[in-house]
Design goal:
Elements (H helix, E strand, L loop, with lengths): L6 E3 L4 E3 L23 E7 L5 H4 L24 E5 L34 H9 L8 E4 L21 H9 L4 H29 L4 H27 L23 H13 L5 E6 L13 H5 L5 H27 L6 E6 L15 E5 L6 E4 L10 H12 L21
Parallel strand pairs: 3-6, 3-7, 4-9, 5-6
Antiparallel strand pairs: 1-2, 4-8, 7-8
Helix pairs in contact: 3-6, 4-5, 6-8
Length: 415
């Protein structure tokens, strides 16, 4: 078997070998091997995490006993792996939840080459203009500040399913396209002027200021890339909507989750994007579930009545996660889609950011249901090691991601 990911490396140039029809791809019949499926990453973040007592399985590997929280997805246990004792070594409770996909607090971002860029945005940069949207960031309400660019900017989620449907499937009218084209041209002119000014003053700066200027120009180049990407897709027709239009209506909050998962599945299936995120905030209506305030229930203090109501909310969230995995399987893209579900909050009741709840699903991996990483401080495995392995699975040629100390060796990431 020829490995498609072999590369020819020359002096500063990396060329991917073209796909050859005679190559045999694992799990793909010869009739479909001429067009291999692209890989995709989806990250789902829940601000309040999950109650540890119901989330983490007992035992390890395939013989582990799933906790009550995971009961709604027990029939899909061969499609996911739960990890325990993984975190970023951070603290701060609610103020550290935003580190889930980066491992870096926003206050520390200036000390890192790529600020607090998150896993999803690293994957989006790798995709470039291969799809209409380099990434789609969705969520309920204001989300949970989960997605950050290499310039240290937080990307707010799209929280309106109707607007998300329009972006995916509804063509802009001529007047709107003209306005958008003019806006893009104006942005390009401003960026050109910034680059010209930077070149003129660059030679007169000392080493410290040149370093600051280089960081600034990196931000400018990121904006340029996005402008070019928008221009590239402006005149290309959008895919035909395979479902009825999603109309504006009164906000439903928690009941909108399956609709968002439907739209994200369609976005991936139509190759409108290969990177998507979904954010679940700490405050949303739970009256549909006949329980109290979600945030209030998360501070249960081990009170039986509150834990019982919290279990109802968490079971609903996990049921919808199982629904999403089923949609991906029905669309025949689960094996090419790596789905991350978790939180930057380990125990909301005590505001702990340790031992984060993390699930990895799909991706064609040989899942082990539960991997218990070392709990001892001197043996702890950084969560960023898992994120690095996920990015390498996605196709990034990188040996480091933020606080990683290496790749994650306890799960086989087949390539």
């Amino acid at each position: 078997m020829i490995n498609r990911r072999h590369f020819l490396r020359g002096t500063g140039v990396t060329l991917a070998l073209p796909f050859l029809a005679s190559q045999k791809l694992p799990g793909v019949s010869s009739s479909r091997s001429a067009k291999p499926q692209p890989r995709r990453i989806v990250c789902i973040g829940n601000h309040l995490g999950f109650w540890p007592g119901g989330f983490f399985p007992e035992g390890e590997g395939g013989n582990s006993q799933l906790g009550a929280t995971l009961n709604p997805i027990k029939n899909q246990r061969n499609d996911f792996t739960v990890f325990s004792n993984l975190d970023h070594g951070t603290s701060g409770g609610h103020k550290a939840v935003h580190t889930f996909l980066s491992g870096i607090r926003k206050e520390e971002a200036a000390g890192f080459p790529e600020k607090n860029r998150t896993l999803d945005q690293a994957a989006a940069e790798h995709c470039g203009s291969a799809t209409r949207f380099s990434s789609i960031n969705a969520g309920l309400g204001e989300g949970t500040s989960m997605c950050w660019t290499r310039t240290g900017i937080c990307i707010p989620p799209v929280n309106n399913p109707a607007k998300m449907f329009d972006a995916l499937f509804v063509e802009s009218d001529a007047a709107s396209q003209k306005i958008q084209r003019s806006r893009l041209q104006h942005q390009k002119s401003v960026l050109d002027a910034v680059n010209d000014s930077a070149r003129r003053i660059g030679s007169r700066l000392n080493a410290t200021d040149r370093n600051k200027l280089d960081q600034y120009l990196t931000s400018v180049r990121d904006v340029e890339r996005r402008v070019q990407m928008s221009n590239l897709w402006l005149d290309r027709p959008k895919p035909k909507p395979p479902i009825e239009p999603v109309l504006e209506k009164e906000r439903m909050h928690i009941e909108e989750i399956p609709l968002f998962y439907d739209l994200l599945t369609l976005a991936l299936q139509t190759d409108s994007t290969r990177v998507a995120t979904f954010e679940i905030p700490m405050a949303f209506k739970t009256s549909e579930l006949n329980v109290g305030s979600y945030h209030g229930l998360s501070h249960h203090g081990k009170e039986a009545g509150r834990l019982e109501q919290l279990a109802v909310v968490e079971a609903y969230l996990m049921k919808q996660f199982g629904y999403f995995l089923n949609k991906l399987r029905e669309s025949e893209i689960l094996d090419q889609t790596l789905v991350i579900h978790g939180s930057g909050m380990g125990n909301a009741s005590s505001h702990s950011n340790k031992n984060l709840p993390v699930i990895l699903a799909g991706g064609g991996l040989k899942h082990k249901q539960h991997i218990a990483c070392p709990a001892e401080d001197h043996k702890r495995v950084p969560l960023c090691n898992l994120w690095l392995s996920a990015l390498q699975w996605f196709g990034l040629e990188t040996e480091r991601f933020n606080r990683s100390s290496g790749t994650f060796s306890d799960l086989e990431f087949r390539t």
